[in-house]
Amino acid sequence: xxxxxxxxxxxxxxLVGSLLSLNDSPRFRQSLSWVILISGLVVxxxxxxxLSLVPLWNxxxxxxxxxxxxxxxxxxxxxxxxxxxxxxxxxxxxxxxQSRVSHSNSDIREEVELACSRIxxxxxxxxxxxxxxxxxxxxxxxxxxxxxxxxxPVFFGLAYR
Length: 161
Prior knowledge:
Helix content is 78%, strand content 0%. It has 161 residues and is mainly α.
């Protein structure tokens, strides 16, 4: 006996039946979640890359220049004066103590405190170590900072996993 051609509806039923049986599979669900995660990560990197990396590598100064220079300063300080006991910092600390007493103007005091808050505290040693390592590998400070900014979307995207 010769069978007739298979109807298109039977293919659909077979496909739907196969997909429904996969739906019950824990391996399928895990694979699907990984596909969704990787797809989202790729979209995140593309969007963040286009929004932040194009200006970063095309402008002469990095975004948020004051913060960038603070990070570079702290990295350089970690390299040259890790314990903050070098003569320049000791002198700045003395000047800071004197300025607290001598300045009655609150605006001047605020500016001095802002400058000192960027010089003395160590609040991001991991970033400073990464910058220092990239600098030791041959990159200048600003290029090393740009490399870290470039890798940032990947790190943040993976953090959401």
